[in-house]
Design brief:
The chain is about 25% helix and about 25% strand. By secondary structure, it is α/β, with parallel strands linked by helices.
Length: about 325
């Protein structure tokens, strides 16, 4: 169906939370976050655990290698979103990031990094987390949406994205930074770039109307189109339903666009047809996880590294 792409990793890391809850310490600048007053905390946590389990199993069935780590503590309510604290890059490079909320800074796990070193070819690990002491933050591939083909890092200005840290990352990892402002319908800054846009191999999803500077909006669209991508514009309502929070992966039958059931329902028929010209849509119900203000993209840390040994079967890796 589709050729191998450096944009679409074949492996991912997921964290399965045992005590999931929307994090009150991150609600102030995350307008996508909400609460469920009708269910008890234990019921919410149990459903979230099941959503992660079903998604991991569904991805593995589609041919994606899934490394699942358990979070049995109640101290890290947002641990289900590992893409914010680390990223991996071709050539054997790993980055570890400074997190804005103190409640999220303890999500970083040495066992995840050690697994990457054991199972994949890792040349170096660059740790930016010390920048937290200077109140400088860059929340990984939440703060940045990376074009691994065109080597562009798209980043919305917010509490979670410091331009000094972004420049440092781009210098180390050979990306061109493209920073811009984006706001929700109430004029509040979008907290993470990856709820606004998704860059695939042949297409990009973008909530362009949420970029108030028209000239900058055109520059972002033009930069995406320069790489040969079809830009699929998403409405404000579609962004609010997490339609921009998707990720392209490589499965056994070609490329996949993984997104939530809610996001899939928000897309119209023409948009679905456009996406499926190059990749199959694979939706999962993560409606409980979405209470925390993130969706499927946030739940998946893509592994852009070479395996040490070719996997004969897809791996569901449990640790910790």
């Amino acid at each position: 169906m589709s050729k191998l792409s450096v944009q679409a990793p074949k492996s991912v890391v997921m964290i399965r939370p045992h005590h999931f809850t929307p994090n009150p310490m991150t609600a102030n600048d995350n307008s996508f976050q909400s609460n469920d007053e009708k269910r008890a905390a234990a019921a919410i946590a149990s459903t979230a655990f099941d959503e992660v389990t079903r998604m991991a199993e569904g991805l593995a069935a589609a041919g994606v290698t899934v490394h699942v780590f358990e979070d049995k503590t109640a101290a890290t309510p947002d641990s289900v979103f590992p893409n914010n604290w680390f990223s991996t890059h071709s050539g054997g490079h790993v980055a570890i990031y400074p997190m804005y909320s103190a409640s999220r800074q303890s999500e970083r796990r040495s066992d995840v990094i050690e697994m990457l070193k054991t199972d994949y070819r890792v040349q170096d690990v660059i740790d930016y987390s010390g920048l937290e002491k200077d109140h400088v933050y860059l929340e990984g591939t939440g703060a940045m949406v990376l074009d691994h083909i065109g080597r562009v890092a798209y980043a919305v200005r917010s509490n979670r994205t410091n331009e000094v840290a972004l420049e440092r990352f781009c210098t180390h990892f050979n990306f061109e930074p493209m920073v811009f402002d984006a706001v929700d319908r109430n004029g509040k800054a979008i907290y993470h770039t990856n709820v606004l846009m998704c860059v695939g191999t042949d297409f990009a999803l973008l909530g362009s109307q949420m970029i108030p500077d028209v000239a900058r909006r055109r520059e972002i669209i033009a930069r995406l189109e320069e790489t040969g991508r079809k830009v699929i514009d998403l409405s404000v309502e579609q962004i609010e339903n997490f339609a921009g929070n998707a990720i392209e992966l490589d499965g056994k039958d070609g490329r996949l666009v993984v997104l939530s059931a809610r996001a899939h329902e928000a897309l119209d028929a023409a948009q679905i047809e456009e996406i499926e010209q190059s990749a199959k849509l694979l939706p999962f119900d993560v409606s409980t996880i979405e209470l925390a203000g993130g969706s499927v993209r946030c739940m998946l840390a893509g592994i852009h590294l070479s395996r040490r040994e070719p996997a004969a079967t897809q791996l569901l890796y449990a640790a910790g």
